[in-house]
Amino acid sequence: MSVPQIEIQLIAAIVAAACALPGVFLVLRRMALMSDAISHAILLGIVLAFFVIQDLASPFLVLAAAATGVLTVALVEALTRTGLVKEDAAIGLVFPVLFSVGVILISRYAGNVHLDTDAVLLGELAFAPFDRFEIFGADIGPLSVYVMGGILLANLLFIVLFYKELKLATFDAGLAAALGFSPVLIHYGLMTLVSITAVGAFNAVGSILVVALMVAPPAAAYLLTNNLGRMIIFSVLIGVASAIGGYWAAHALDTSIAGSMATTAGLLFVLTFLLAPERGIAAIARRRNRQRWHFALRMLTVHLFNHEGMPEAAEECRVDHLHDHISWAPDFAQRVVRYAERRNAVVEEDGLLTLTDEGRSIAREAIVE
After folding, report:
1. pTM of the entire structure?
2. CA nearest neighbour of 144 among 250, 53, 2, 9
């Protein structure tokens, strides 16, 4: 493995971790679309700052882009507070306008500058190692490593310092306000982090991958745990796995690195969605199946218990009469009886069902409930 390959994977892993940290709170706040809005809208800030500074390497571009991200949030909030527009609709109204203005300005006035819509949307991680960071003439590595590494540390520091406040404001903003915290301040602090993270990742990976890494890993982590701390850790791990796995998928298929990483993040989410131990589709299907058989067992035991010792028990408690008295299909009735026998709830003798002590206990519990 060559040095550029290692550097590309390192950059991608740092970007993934930096995006995953604020992404957790976006997902929990049901504001995942805000990452899409900010990562697109910041283009306008970059373009306007470039027209003023005339230097793509200027740090003022980052500040202008971050300010545009915060402006996007403020405009969405302003529209939502009117009560005339829902939040998702407000996001859909604001960011396409800002992004489109940025694209128009690039196409009209920056056609000869290395600032184009392809780079904006997809980025190109393969070129990131060529942008070096030098101190006194000494090359100390790709610039993106230090930029995104600094943003990653800032995100981590913010979450560690304001963990309780973020947790409280995310799950119960009203309680946070009652306890003296400012949910609005915390909200805008988080949105500023999202903006800065999107800006930092913008040049290397493009807006599409920023959205994928902010949403897919936290969404997958949400399906794996109910604990916020573990969710943050899982989100970072899934994001890094998406970055590394996506790079090697792109290497094998000779295709876009950013596109492969976004696809890998999506595939990992789909796998989690299907196979998560508690919330996955397979787990839910198994749980519903168990509930179905447990309910059928309770119905059977209650039916037999109600007729136990009665003159009509010889008819009511026969297997071949269950479909008439409980409205079960004959095949399903036979399967329920087999299930009840395995649970030691009934005994069948010459087609007549008799409750065991375990069956009577199940019936009494069902009646009491």
Report:
1. 0.82
2. 9
